[in-house]
Every structure is written in C-alpha cells, then in structure tokens.
Design a protein that fits this description.
The complex is a heterotetramer, with 2 copies of chain A and 2 copies of chain B. Chain A has 1 helix and 17 strands. Chain A starts with a strand and ends with a strand. In chain B, the strands form 6 sheets. Chain B has an 8-stranded antiparallel beta sheet with strand order 13-12-9-10-11-14-21-19, sandwiched between helices. In chain B, strands 3-2-1-4-5 form a 5-stranded parallel beta sheet. Chain B is globular, with a radius of gyration of 25 Å. Classes of the chains: A mainly beta, B alpha+beta. The interface between A and C is medium-sized, with 10 and 17 residues.
Chain lengths: ~160, ~500, ~500, ~160
C-alpha cells in the first residue's frame, strides 16, 4: 500500500505493508519500525521503535484530522485505489462544491442560480445553535447550481451549491 | 426537605442538578423538548415529561407548560439552572403563585438586579463602588456628550437590559459618540425590546472577577471567594479559575464585603454572583449581579469543599446556612474549561451532530460535568456547551498540569470541539504567568497557530493516517488484540478486527 | 527533577503514576507483558517496552528485565506502584546499584519492616504500643502455651513473613493451640518459605485504621491523617475512608505521632503507611508498616488536598517536604470503593473477559482512577482490581450520597463486577452509622440479599428484558432516535436502529 | 410478541407489540404505557407512564441480568421463536451441562468419564486471577462426557462436562 499523506500542508510518501505478522513502514523511503493496536474504533495505540503514542482519528463532514496526544493535525490521504482520494484530487480543478461545514438550517440564500460571484462572496447563510455562518464562494465564477432552499436542514458535508 | 424537584433546564446543568437531588434522596423531574428525548438529563431523571417543540419558546421557555408539569408530577420546588428561565422574575412569581418553591432569589430581588441602571441606583445608595458614568438611561446625545466629557474618554455605551455584549459600544473619541449611541440604541431595541442605554467610563484591558455569595432566608449572607473570569470570547467566558491570581486575603475580604452589601441591599436570598471589573491598579468596580447559579460554580466548590447546589436546595427548603463566614476556607486552586461543540477550523462556529466516539478523562484532581454521551446526537437548537472539565491542584501550577494532562485524554469524535484551543491557552506563557485580561483570548486567536509543527508528532500522524486507511471499516469494530496473535503482532490484530467485523455484520 | 521515570507496574496504579509524570512534565516509560500490549498504561505512556510472558515472574516480577529497560530507555528513576516489586528490598538495592533512583524507602528501611517480628523488636525499642504477645518466633509448643496463657485467650498465630492472611490462625482455647500452630507453620512454610510463627492476643472485631506518613531525605517526617480500612473480605480491603469516623483530633495526633516515631525508628523515607488495630475502647496497637504507596491513597489526597505521587517523586528527586505538620489540614470526608472483576453470583470469584460496554460516572465530588476501557479484554493473569471510585463530600453523609449516586451510574458490560455489592454496603444501617469492624463484610454477605425485591423496579426489568429481546442484534448499533420520528415514538426509533444496523453491516 | 420473563425467580407474562408508532405492552394482562429509546447498545432509556428509568443489560456467559439504576436483577426470557429460549427450557430435563462461569484455566479434573457423582460433588477446578474455583455437579448422576483437559484455557459459558 502506498499513500500520499498531507499533514498540516506538508506531504509525505507513506508505504505500509504487512508480512510475517509485522507491519513494515517507510516514510519518504526511510524504514520505520511500527507496532499498532486498535484500542477502540478510531483510536490507535502506536509504538514507533519504543516510543508510544495514542492517536485518535477525527472524521467530520469529509474532513480528516488526527490527534497525537493533544496535538491536532489536519490530514489528507491520497491513494489511487481509494474513491475519496480520487474525488479529492478531482476537486482541485473544474467546478467547486460549497459544502455545509456543520449540521444546521439554511436561513438565507444570497445569490440566484446563474449569478456571477467574486471569490469570497457570500453565497448562503447556515444557522446552528443560535449562530449564523455565511458560506462564501471559494473562487470567482458563476453559480452553476443551488442544491438547497431556505429553511432546509442540512448535514455536515452536504453540497449546497456549485460554482464553476 | 423536598421530596421532589422539577429541573426546568437541559444539558450538563440539568444533569448536575439531578445528581444533587439523588445525592440528597430527592426525586428529580425532567422536562424535555422534542429533540431532547434521548438527552442525558432524561436518562438520569426519575420522571420525564415532554413539553413541546425544539424552539425554546415552545418548551424550555414556556412557563405555562413547565408549571403544568410541576402540578402533574407533584413537584414541590423548581430548579431553573442557568439560562432559559433562571433570571426571569415573571417565572419566579408564577412559581410562587402556584405554590411552588423557586430555588433562587425572590422575584423582587431579581427585579432589583434585572435592570443594570436600577441596580446601579440601588448600589449607589448602598455605597458600592462602580465605574463612573450614569445610573440612568441617557435622555439625549447632549447628556451623553456631557457625561463622557466628565468621566473622560474612552467610554462604553451599554444597554440597560443588556447581556452577552448586545447593545454595547466602545467610544474612543467625541466624534464617534453620535453613531455609537444610535447603533447601541437600535441594537438594544432589537435584542431586548428596550432601547435604554447608559454610559460608563471604559476600563481598558480590565480583569473580570466575580464574587460568589450565598444567603439564607434569615438574613445570613456570606461570600465564598472570587472567580477569575477574564478569558472570554464574544463576551462569553471560556476559562474560569478560583482563586484569582491577583486577589490576596485583604482584597478578597474587601470585595466579599462589598458583594455581601450588594446582596443585602437587594434583599437577596439563595446563591448569587456579584461581578466586578478590576483595573490595572486592582481597583474593583461593581458591574452587575447574576441572580442564578453560574456555569463556573464548580471552581468555587473545589476550593471551598462545599456543594453549592446542595446548599441552594437546603436554603430553599428553609434551612439556615450551616456555617459562618469565618468557617469558609479557600484551599488549593481550580480551573474550568468549557467544552463547546465548536469548529476550530471555522472561527469556532457551532458544530452540532452525532458523537461517534467519546474518550473522557478522569483521575486525580479532575472533575467532569458533562451532558453528552457516545452515540448522542447533539441537537442544533441550543447552546453549544457540551461539558465542563475542571482541574484542581494544591496550587495553580498543579491545577494547570492536571488539566493539561486531562485535556490530552479528552476526545470527542463525530463533531468538532474547542478542546484543542485549551491546549494553546494552557501552554501560553502569559496564561502561565496569570497575566489575564478580557482581551487575552482575542489576541491569542489572532496569533497565528504555532506554524512549526512538532515533526515527530507529524510523522506519527502520517503513519496513523495510513493505518486508519488500511483498517478502514474494520476500525468500526473493537479489536481483541490481547487474546489474539503474538504481542505486537498487528497484522494478527487486523485480521482479528476483520473477523470481528464480519461476525458483527452477520447479526 | 527527573526527566524520565519507569513505572514497574500495570493496571490503574501504572496509569495513575503515568498521569502524575505527565502533570509534572516528566516522560513516562511503561513495561508490559504479552497479554498487556493493549492495556491502558501502554496507551498512555511515552515509551513502552515488552518484558515477556503473562506470568508475573516472567515480566512484572523480573528484576533483570526491568533494569534492562531502565538502562535502554535512559530512565533516571523507577516507581514500583503497589504489589509486584514495590516492597522487594532486593529490587530497591538493585536499582541503587544500577544508579537508578527507587521511588520509595531505602532497602534497609524495607528490611527493617519486612519481617513482622523484626519490626516488632524495633518498635519495642521505640516504645510503640503493640498487641501483647511475642516479638520473636515461637521455639516450641510449650512456649506458645505459656505466652497464650499470659496474654489470655483468644490468641492469634501469625507468620513472621506473613501477609494476606496466610499462616494466620485464631485460637479460642488451649486445646486448639497445638494443631493451629502446626497448621500455621506448614502454611507459612508453603507460602513464604519461612515457617517462623509468632503469637498475639486476638483483638475481637477490631477496627483496622492506618496512618499515612511522608518523610523527605533530610529527616523531616509528617503524618497526613488516618484511613479507616475495616471493611475487608478474605483479608482484602474493599472500602476505605478518611477520616475514620471514630478518630478525633486528639487520637489523630497521638496515632500520628506514634506513626512518625515508627517511621523514624526505621530511618524511613518517602511515602509509607503504619497500620494499627483498634479495639472497642479505642486503644490502638501497631500492626505493621507498609513500605509503599497504598491502593487507598486517594482518600487521603482528597481530604488533605495533596497529591501523594507528586510528593513521592519530589522527595525522591531530593526536594524537601514543602509543608510542615501544622500545615496539614483534614477537610471533608472521602470514601473509596474498589471495583473488582468479580462474580457476585459465584461467591465473588474473579471474572475476567472482554468489556463490551462501559458507563463511567463523573460529576461533583467523584474521582475515578481506572485501568480499564470499553473494548479491553481483562486478562485472567493478574489481580482483579479494575478501578477505584472515590467519593468526596463536605461530610460523611454527603460523601456517601455522592458515591451512591455515582455507583448507580457505573456499569461494566461483558464481565461481572462487584459494583452491586457497594450498593448493599452503602445503604446498610450499620455502615451509615459508621459501626465498622473487620467482620462487617462477612456478616453482610451471610445476610440473605434483601429477599423482597422492589416490585416496580422488577416490572421495569420485565419490560426491558422483552424490549432487548425484540431489538435483539439491532441493539448492537446506537440509535439516532432524537432526529427520527415523533418524540416518544419508539417504533420510529426501532426502525431507525434497524436501518442503522443495515447501514453498518453494509461496510 | 409474547414472552415469559422470570425476574429474581418470579415469572411474568409479557406481551409487547408496536402499532401506529407506539409500543403497547401488557404485563400479566395489565396494559402498561411505555416509551423507549436505546441510548447505547444494552442501555435503554424507558418511560413507563411519566416515570423514567435507565436500564442496562448485562450478558455474561449465557446469563442475563438487568440493572434498573443500581438494582441488579437476574432475568430469564422464554419465547417459542427464540433459540436461546428453547435450549434453556430443554436444559430443565435430561443431561445437565457444566459450564465455565468465567474465562480461566482448567487446573484439575477431579473425576473420570463415566464416574458416578453426587449432587454438589466437585468435578473440575478452574483458575483465574490467582484464585481457584471448583465446578460442582448440579445433580446426582454419571459423568457422561468431559469436554476439556487440564491446562486448557476456557471462556465463560464453555461447556466443560455433561452429567446425566
């Protein structure tokens, strides 16, 4: 298994495999001795050499974060065989999706389908826990589609609109 | 003593009051809205009544429905918690009329403190120090200009009915006064249906320090020491501690005696909090009185060894204070972190949703007051406070050490929380040196998160990311590592997880 | 201060020491046997080293392997916890020889206290009160008869090397002495490889009260108050509390001063405990000294506000005691329950296995020191202690109230525990009145469990049993009730669980 | 659904069904109003009328216990359509199984296959956590089969021997 892993913006080439009942692991070609136990779903007890770490995996609305002790890292992992990887890389060019960062209620839609928007322009407003959050356009372009309506309840990661 | 108490609240505070009831052998009655049937306070209550739709005005703010439940359940008293109806004099009065004991001050005392201007007037008579300014609403821009000139710029405009920073404006110079006054008035009108605005001298980088008071119904009033609450964001407290690092015995006595005078001037009973602004020279000024139990009451409980909710209930039941002022001793140091469902990657915007995994800290010096549990779906309709993590220590350093340790054990999966923020706060040199003021947190959040990430930890994250990807869904079943394979034989473990996963899906 | 400490233990005490290290900014090195790779102390450590097979002599009792890990990891000190090597003078000496600081007393002090007869001789010289009897091993039956006649029947025969009740015999009358002496000697030989047996006057229904002492390496020794440990089963403590309900200020001072004399007579350093037997007239007799941290140390921490493990580490690092005797104040009351993996339906026989569900209590006045977690497989190879639940209160009643509340929230699924036993103890009138002695628990267990079960609760159990049967495997997936169906619409919920179950099995 | 539920020795006839989105429930023919939410696997939040209860389900080695608050009840549930129910009732007559009450190691077997035993006679000894537990014969009879051996590791509920 080979992955491209990006941690807080810096990327690493990770090779992981199992043979004779051991993990073998290379980071950017360098061999690393690892031993892992899954203590709970999303909680790994890792030994790297004799160093011990508890790592927790935070998955919210398509985002991936890893906690090493109380340090929190944003992570991206690409793997030719993983769907998520593919869709991710696809995201980089072409139309951009606006997704809901958290569950909430769409209280206002600020633009109409087909309208031109500047990068950073507000597209719609989502409310949760008595606070309103303006979802902004990630790029200059045209609102290709609006996939929600005022008053609608949305979940984290739901696609609300597409800008192209 | 009461046999049955209704808790007119939800979340961690409802759970905390239910626990106090059970500890005292009192039956606890919960009320819940449509989205709270599975909430922890319903699980823990002895009786539970649905009171309507998610919107607070349909349920937790609906006086008629709550009184109806009190009647049907035969509850003898109501604990309002904080927020919702806790400072609503109309509710306190309605309880009294219905022959229910309201666990808190009288409606009259609430009225006296409810309006900041009326409170200031009462305090003036009681000779309580407060920030120079007007004790009445401003009649005109001219009056505002005249007062501002007298007390000196910068000045602060505040809504008389205010709270949570609504209707507040800082004015640095005369030319800004007009627009600020208009803005404050219209915002106050929108927020509280009352446009009354008054003016105070602005204290720059003040500390926010509050004094806990407790009064029985026989005229005995004591103070239980102060809480340092200077760490705020959007005028919301985030970290509180007791004692305040800058308050010595003498200052505590002086603040405490003023707080007792404030309470007595208002004919106050039960638990209450007198808030002060403290300037660089440690002068303290009366700000307002909170006529309820505070979110941060646990830090006072830890350093005094008392249980404020037990005492609230005893006082409401007509008991006398079981101790005198000289019996109150502050020992050790306590710090509270408010765990919110907030997204650190999105300006700490609320982040409700389903909790898929919960690792909760415990151990020496750690108290956890929580309203969440693994598998619970945090509703989007209410305040994002999930839990309070409180660390106690022999001294402030030990409290910080224990709290930092506990925070590194705390993990909430499935939603985002502000837990990572506390790590930044607790390691910050200024916090360690107790250099605190109400501007601290905004400054910290402007500082770029330490760019240089610990490279070793980052590599650990890389490896873990890969393993979680390899394990994939198998990660959804807990391993049986210890009994399987040879130790440290992770592939043995993995295959085991796979087996377990299969077994489970066969159900 | 040390940079790195090795913890030569496992389970809750290893976790508790690791936490203390992290709180003080010290790296913690764990060791683990083949069946402990997934144990909590390995998850929490900064470094972890495998040291061999499950059998303790292959791993946690293997001095050579542990010293080797200390060398490789560069640890500067070793904390032994309790049990295993904690009272092994050979290990303390081996650490010293290897240039490792042993966090505990010197080997010499351990030797002085290791043999009960030698300890008695030292105490005799120090003028410490102890139970009348011999301070030397019995040479002959005749000598035994002579001493027994002098001190008066009933008498107790005890193994000099003894512990855990092995080699102990109660003798009611002269005619039983011969066989009892032979039995005690052979059992002592079998258990400790040492047949030395001595004789003491038997104290009937004594209380077991112990005094915590702390000594730095500059001759400063203080006592931190007593612990009441009379609730025992199979000579194992089950519930401990501080302070003892029968000890007043004067008795505490007298016991404390004796304990300090005991420690000083042995040239004792670091934390230790002096155990006393207390008779009906409150006379106290020296029993033995435990030269380690006790399982029940948390109750002392809660009433003194101190952290004994932090202090152990500071003392071992050469620091002086940071306070004097007169600074030590006992405030409030604390009670500890030892949560064991034991089967209440099978005479409290150990019950290891996989923990499928864990609901852990928290909240006001509750401390939980735990070595378990949900999904962990409790190995069958070690002591069944899973966790300690400690309740603190302003007074004993409040501590009992909080502890009872917390116990009702505590649930461990997949294995059996003794949690239900504590409910019986805490509501027992004699316990409530603090009428405690070492026979209490055996008497309680002989009492038939209250036959008349609460009929309402029984009906609730009936309904729940049926629902769990209906839900069946769907119960294996957590519901999303709050978001689905109308409130209180359980079928809506069920179908939801079903859906969830399906969704999950599709992985 | 109809069940015979035995709680601490006393049995009840329980009828449970769902219609129009409500549970309906009868105990010994008496109607009871119930509302249930599964908070966690094996944890029910029950409302009976307006009374609220948290009930936890303890399943260890074939035994069933229910916790209502901190009260623990031993429970047996029989249902013609449930396997467990059938085997249970079957248990009542004919050969009796000796099962391991907890995981452990078989340290001694005290009888030989075919031997006659009295009720309460020790058949084998299981050790766990440094304590030994003698498994006794539930009835007078003959050791039909011994299904383990000295030194073997066993799990809770494993059948160790059969007496007939």
């Amino acid at each position: 298994m080979t992955y491209d892993v990006t941690i807080d913006g810096r990327s690493y080439r990770l090779e992981l495999s199992q043979a004779e009942g051991r993990w073998s692991c290379r980071i950017d070609g360098r061999e690393v001795a690892v031993d892992a136990v899954l203590a709970r779903p999303d909680v790994l007890s890792l030994r790297i050499g004799d160093q011990a770490f508890e790592v927790k995996c935070e998955r919210v609305g398509g985002e991936l974060h890893l906690w090493v002790g109380s340090q929190r890292f944003s992570a991206e992992i690409r793997d030719p065989r993983s769907l998520r990887g593919r869709s991710r890389s696809a995201d980089d060019q072409g139309p951009k999706k606006l997704t809901a960062p958290m569950p909430g209620k769409v209280v206002r839609i600020l633009v109409t389908q087909g309208a031109d928007v500047e990068a950073g322009a507000g597209v719609l407003v989502v409310e949760a826990m008595k606070m309103q959050n303006e979802i902004k356009s990630p790029k200059k372009g045209t609102i290709q589609r609006i996939l929600t309506e005022e008053g609608a309840a949305v979940n984290a990661g739901d696609v609300l609109a597409i800008v192209e | 003593m009461f046999n049955k108490i209704l808790i007119a609240n939800r979340g961690e505070i409802a759970v905390r009051v239910i626990r106090a009831c059970h500890e005292m052998g009192i039956a606890a009655v919960a009320v819940y809205s449509d989205v709270d049937r599975a909430s922890l306070h319903v699980r823990k209550a002895d009786e539970a009544y649905p009171i309507g739709a998610a919107a607070a005005k349909e349920s937790y703010l609906n006086i008629a429905k709550i009184l109806d439940v009190a009647q049907r359940s035969g509850a003898e008293a109501v604990h309002p918690g904080y927020g919702f109806l806790s400072e609503n004099a109309k509710f306190a009065r309605a309880c009294a009329d219905a022959g229910l004991k309201f666990i808190g001050p009288t409606a009259a005392a609430m009225d006296a403190m409810g309006s900041k201007t009326r409170a200031r007037q009462a305090m003036e008579r009681a000779g309580v120090p407060f920030v120079p300014g007007t004790s009445r609403g401003l009649e005109s821009l001219e009056q505002a200009e005249e007062v501002a000139a007298r007390v000196g710029y910068p000045v602060m405009l505040k809504a008389a009915a205010g709270g949570g920073g609504k209707g507040m404006r800082l004015v640095a110079a005369p030319r800004d006064l007009k627009s600020a006054l208009e803005g404050a008035r219209s915002e106050a009108e929108r927020s509280f249906g009352d446009s009354e605005v008054y003016i105070e001298k602005a204290i720059l980088n003040p500390r926010h320090i509050e004094m806990q008071v407790l009064a029985d119904e026989y005229g005995n009033t004591v103070y239980l020491g102060e809480r340092e609450c200077s760490l705020q964001r959007r005028h919301q407290k985030v970290v509180e501690e007791a004692p305040s690092p800058i308050v010595d015995l003498d200052m505590r006595r002086r603040m405490g005696e003023v707080a007792v005078r404030v309470a007595q001037a208002a004919g106050y009973t039960n638990a209450g909090t007198v808030e002060f602004l403290v300037d660089q020279e440690k002068n303290f000024y009366f700000l307002e009185m909170n006529t309820r139990l505070q979110v941060e009451h646990p830090v006072t409980e830890l350093v005094t060894g008392l249980d404020l909710v037990h005492l609230q209930i005893r006082i409401a039941a007509g008991e006398r204070l079981p101790f005198r002022q000289e019996d109150v001793q502050i020992r050790g140091h306590a710090i509270e972190c408010r765990i919110y469902a907030e997204d650190p990657d999105n300006n700490y915007f609320p982040s409700p949703g389903k909790i898929t995994l919960l690792l909760a800290p415990s151990g020496p010096g750690i108290r956890r007051d929580s309203g969440m549990y693994e598998g619970w779906n945090v509703p989007m309709d209410y305040d994002p406070l999930l839990a309070k993590l409180i660390g106690y220590g022999t001294d402030r350093d030990q409290a910080i050490g224990r709290l930092s340790r506990a925070l590194s054990e705390y993990f909430v999966g499935g939603i985002k929380t502000n837990i990572s923020l506390f790590r930044r706060i607790l390691r910050h040199p200024e916090f360690r040196q107790a250099k605190l003021d109400t501007g601290f947190l905004d400054r910290l959040l402007k500082e770029k998160e330490e760019v240089q990430t610990d490279p070793q930890a980052a590599e650990v994250a890389v490896i873990a990311a890969g393993m979680f990807a390899v394990l994939g869904p198998a990660g959804a079943s807990v391993g049986e590592q210890t009994q399987a394979g040879t130790p440290g034989d992770a592939s043995g473990n993995v295959s085991n997880w796979k087996r377990t996963a299969l077994r489970e899906s066969r159900h």
